[in-house]
């Protein structure tokens, strides 16, 4: 884990479910095709619908962005 930071497991939890009811969970919209998540501490990630029709397009876009 980076000094003063959360390690990969904490970052994944923050991106996937926002840290629980007392943190950022209310900011997750599970019915959206794509969500870009950026935390105050710099944690970032993307959540997207893994459906075949949407997944390939979103994966290509994220690959281009990165």
Please describe what this structure looks like:
- This is CACP acetyltransferase.
- InterPro entries: Carn_acyl_trans (IPR000542), Cho/carn_acyl_trans (IPR039551), Cho/carn_acyl_trans_2 (IPR042231).
- GO terms for molecular function: carnitine O-acetyltransferase activity.
- Keywords: Acyltransferase, Transferase.
- Pfam families: Carn_acyltransf (PF00755).
- The protein is an alpha+beta fold and 66 residues long.
- The protein has one domain (11-65).
- 36% of the residues lie in helices and 15% in strands.
- The protein has two helices and two strands; from the N terminus they run αββα.
- Strands 1-2 form a two-stranded antiparallel sheet.
- Strand 1 (34-38) and strand 2 (44-48) form a beta hairpin.
- The model has no long low-confidence stretch (mean pLDDT 75).
Count the helices. How many? 2
| Helical content class | 25-40%
Question: What portion of residues belong to β-strands?
Answer: 15-25%
Amino-to-carboxy terminus distance: 23 Å
Principal-axes shape call:
globular
Biggest β-sheet: strands ordered side by side in the sheet: 1-2
- Per DSSP E runs of 2 or more residues, the count of β-strands stands at 2
Average pLDDT rating? 75
Radius of gyration: 13 Å
Number of domains: 1
Low-confidence stretches: none
Task: Provide the structure class.
Answer: alpha+beta
Secondary-structure element string? HEEH
Biggest pleated sheet: 2 strands, antiparallel
Protein name: CACP acetyltransferase
Keywords: Acyltransferase, Transferase
Pfam families: Carn_acyltransf
GO molecular function: carnitine O-acetyltransferase activity
């Amino acid at each position: 884990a980076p000094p003063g930071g959360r390690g990969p497991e904490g970052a994944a939890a923050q991106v996937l479910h926002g840290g629980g009811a007392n943190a950022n969970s209310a900011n997750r919209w599970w019915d959206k095709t794509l969500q870009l998540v950026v935390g105050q501490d710099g944690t970032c990630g993307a959540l997207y619908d893994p459906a075949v029709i949407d997944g390939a397009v979103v994966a290509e876009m994220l690959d281009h962005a990165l």
